[in-house]
Design goal:
51 residues; alpha+beta; four-stranded mixed sheet; 1 helix
Length: 51
């Protein structure tokens, strides 16, 4: 996992599908800017919590 500013965290998982995970993470961060955790371990089923 990665720790971001403002006490946010990204749960990335394996290195597989890195490009897809990056695109999804960007979209999630725009859609839920106040969320505390972004989980892209499964890019087909991303999750956001702590908003």
């Amino acid at each position: 996992s990665l720790r971001l500013t403002r006490d946010r965290e990204v749960i990335w998982g394996s290195g597989e599908d890195g490009a897809a995970k990056a695109l999804i993470l960007s979209a999630l961060m725009k859609a839920e800017p106040k969320a505390g955790q972004f989980d892209v371990t499964a890019p087909t089923a991303p999750a956001v919590s702590g908003s």
